[in-house]
C-alpha cells in the first residue's frame, strides 16, 4: 500500500478526507498539530477519528502559535458569532503552511509521496490558505524543497474537498461511514467537545447537514 500523511484536525472535513484516503487504498499516517488553540477537545476528536477510520498511526506535534497570537483562536480575542466582510479574526496566520510543512517532513521520513488536507474553497470562512492557488503553490514548493521532489517520485498534495460544498461533504462522509458525532468543528467547543452553535464553524456545519437532508449529530452546549 502507498503511504500518505493526512492532516487531521478533529473536525468533520478532515475526518472525511481521512476516509477518502483510506478508500483510495493509502496506508494513512494521521498528523494533528497542537498549535495553542483555545481547546484540546478537537485534538481528542482527532485521535478518535484516526483510530476509528483506520489510520496506521496518529501523531500530535506541538507548535506554539500563541507565541505570535494575531487570531481569535490563539490570542485573547473574542470569537465572533457571525462572519463579516474580509478575512475573519479566526484566521490563524500561516497555519496551513505550517501544518503542511510538518506533514511534508514526516512524509519524507516515511517515504510517502502523498499529503492529504481538508481545505475547502466553497463553504468556508474566507481564509487565504484554503484556496486552490495555495494548494498548487505548496505542491510546487514541496517538489522544489525536498529530496523526494528532486530525486524521487515527487510529492502530491491532495485536497479532495476543495471544490465541494458542506452538504456534499456531509453526504460523502455518510457514504464512507464517518461518525460525525465523534468530530469537533466548533471554534468555542467546551472541554467535552460540545459546540456553541453560534460561531462561523458551527453555522457552516449545521447548514451543511440541513442542506444534505441528514440529521445533525453535533452535541451542543445546552
From TrEMBL:
User: Which superkingdom?
Assistant: Bacteria
Instruction: Report the cofactor remark.
Output: Binds 1 zinc ion per subunit.
**Which cofactor is recorded for it?**
Zn(2+)
Molecular function as annotated in GO:
ATP binding; ligase activity, forming carbon-nitrogen bonds; zinc ion binding
Q: Name one GO biological process term.
A: tRNA queuosine(34) biosynthetic process
User: Which Gene3D superfamilies does its entry note?
Assistant: HUPs (3.40.50.620)
CDD domains, per the entry: QueC-like
| Alphabetical keyword list | ATP-binding, Ligase, Metal-binding, Nucleotide-binding, Queuosine biosynthesis, Zinc
Pfam families (alphabetical): QueC
The family note in this entry says: Belongs to the QueC family.
Q: What does this protein do?
A: Catalyzes the ATP-dependent conversion of 7-carboxy-7-deazaguanine (CDG) to 7-cyano-7-deazaguanine (preQ(0)).
Q: Which NCBIfam families match?
A: 7-cyano-7-deazaguanine synthase QueC (TIGR00364)
HAMAP family, A to Z: QueC (MF_01633)
The identity of this protein, by name, is 7-cyano-7-deazaguanine synthase
Q: Which organism is it from?
A: Luteimonas marina
Amino acid at each position: 500500500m502507498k503511504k500518505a500523511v493526512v492532516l487531521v484536525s478533529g473536525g468533520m472535513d478532515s475526518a472525511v478526507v481521512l476516509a477518502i484516503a483510506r478508500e483510495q487504498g493509502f496506508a494513512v499516517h494521521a498528523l494533528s498539530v497542537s498549535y495553542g488553540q483555545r481547546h484540546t477537545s478537537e485534538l481528542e476528536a482527532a485521535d478518535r477519528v484516526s483510530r476509528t477510520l483506520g489510520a496506521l498511526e496518529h501523531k500530535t506535534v506541538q507548535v506554539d502559535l500563541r507565541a505570535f497570537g494575531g487570531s481569535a483562536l490563539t490570542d485573547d480575542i473574542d470569537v465572533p458569532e457571525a462572519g463579516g466582510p474580509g478575512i475573519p479574526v479566526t484566521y490563524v496566520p500561516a497555519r496551513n503552511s505550517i501544518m503542511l510543512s510538518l506533514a511534508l517532513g514526516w512524509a519524507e521520513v516515511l517515504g510517502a509521496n502523498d499529503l492529504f488536507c481538508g481545505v475547502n474553497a466553497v463553504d468556508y470562512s474566507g481564509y487565504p490558505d484554503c484556496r486552490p492557488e495555495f494548494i498548487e503553490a505548496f505542491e510546487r514548493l514541496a517538489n522544489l524543497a525536498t529530496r523526494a521532489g528532486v530525486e524521487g517520485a515527487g510529492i502530491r498534495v491532495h485536497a479532495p474537498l476543495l471544490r465541494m460544498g458542506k452538504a456534499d461533504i456531509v453526504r460523502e462522509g455518510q457514504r464512507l461511514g464517518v461518525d460525525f458525532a465523534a468530530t469537533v468543528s466548533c471554534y468555542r467547543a467546551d472541554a467535552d467537545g460540545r459546540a456553541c452553535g453560534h460561531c462561523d464553524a458551527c453555522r457552516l456545519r449545521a447548514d451543511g447537514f440541513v442542506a444534505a437532508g441528514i440529521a445533525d449529530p453535533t452535541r451542543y452546549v445546552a
